[in-house]
Design goal:
Length: about 140
């Protein structure tokens, strides 16, 4: 079993690598794709760590069994239960994207992301520029 420090270090390394490589969360586009991934083996979810790519927002996090041996009575979602939630998002038309945010030996946290609308990104960019503007000291005369 991994200790918490190791898990955090792995997430930090993944965040740096994801940012450097320009990785983004993975989006499922239809239920048949979810079925193929669920029954075909490994999910194509990138390991982003704490990195949230530009234009995305983390909306939810799932604790998921990554070993494939989890049972329904454990705190972590089984892979089947996780893919059922993903399938529900796709069925409801929610344009969510998924990525691993933390990974241990037998479980992981999967972040659910959504894209921010372009106007929100522009507004945030302007706010970021305003926040970073240098402060000017105005001399008081008199």
């Amino acid at each position: 079993m991994m200790d918490l420090r190791t898990i955090r270090d792995m997430a930090d390394q993944a965040a740096r690598k994801a940012r450097r490589d320009g990785r983004e969360p993975y989006g499922f586009f239809d239920e048949s794709e979810v079925d193929r991934v669920e029954h075909g083996g490994r999910a194509p979810l990138p390991f982003l760590g704490s990195y949230v790519p530009k234009g995305y927002r983390l909306v939810e996090t799932y604790f998921v069994d990554s070993s494939g041996f989890g049972s329904e009575n454990e705190p972590a979602l089984t892979q089947r239960a996780f893919f059922e939630r993903v399938r529900g998002h796709v069925r409801d038309g929610n344009p969510y994207f998924y990525a691993v945010t933390e990974a241990g030996q037998f479980q992981c946290y999967v972040g659910v992301f959504e894209r921010r609308p372009e106007r929100d990104r522009r507004r945030l960019k302007r706010a970021h520029v305003l926040r970073r503007a240098p402060r000017v000291q105005v001399p008081v005369i008199g």
